[in-house]
Amino acid sequence: MQNEQLVQLAIAALEDMKAQDITTIDVRGKTSVTDFMVIASGTSGRHVKSMAESVIEKVKGEGVRPLGSEGLDGGEWALLDLGDVVVHVMQTATRQFYDLERLWQGAEQSRAQSSE
């Protein structure tokens, strides 16, 4: 599966779960860790966990095996390592604290169109 397709698959799973403020950052050439970051906000710990689990389920359904995940137990944030795509799902306050968008400033950034 192409990286762009994997990004779209993750975004679709997040949108299905009513994620807020979905942002994609192209970090190719900025880091060797990954090519794309998808960042989304959730309204509660349960929402964050549900969204992360939904992304895992959806990518597995397409034959993509996640390399790892972190933070699913706590619910403040979750990180899903899909290889060339890393998905960050956080509660709003946690997202503001870490401010990943500003950290990767200069990388190409785009926001998914919200269906709300």
From TrEMBL:
Annotated GO biological processes are: cytosolic ribosome assembly; negative regulation of ribosome biogenesis; negative regulation of translation
User: Which Pfam families does this chain map to?
Assistant: RsfS
State the coiled-coil residue ranges.
Answer: none
What GO molecular-function term can you cite, just one?
Answer: ribosomal large subunit binding
| Protein localization | Cytoplasm
* Top-rank taxon: Bacteria
**InterPro entries, per the entry:** Iojap/RsfS/C7orf30, NT_sf
GO cellular component, alphabetical, reads: cytoplasm
Q: What is the predominant subcellular site recorded for this chain?
A: cytoplasm
Which UniProt keyword terms apply here? Answer: Cytoplasm, Repressor, Translation regulation
Q: Does the keyword Cell inner membrane apply?
A: no
Q: Which Gene3D superfamilies match?
A: Beta Polymerase, domain 2
Q: Is Lyase given among the entry's keywords?
A: no
- Family the UniProt entry places it in: Belongs to the Iojap/RsfS family.
Q: Which HAMAP family match?
A: Iojap_RsfS
| Complexes and interactors | Interacts with ribosomal protein uL14 (rplN).
What is the protein's known function? Functions as a ribosomal silencing factor. Interacts with ribosomal protein uL14 (rplN), blocking formation of intersubunit bridge B8. Prevents association of the 30S and 50S ribosomal subunits and the formation of functional ribosomes, thus repressing translation.
The protein's name is: Ribosomal silencing factor RsfS
Please name the source species.
Pseudomonas matsuisoli
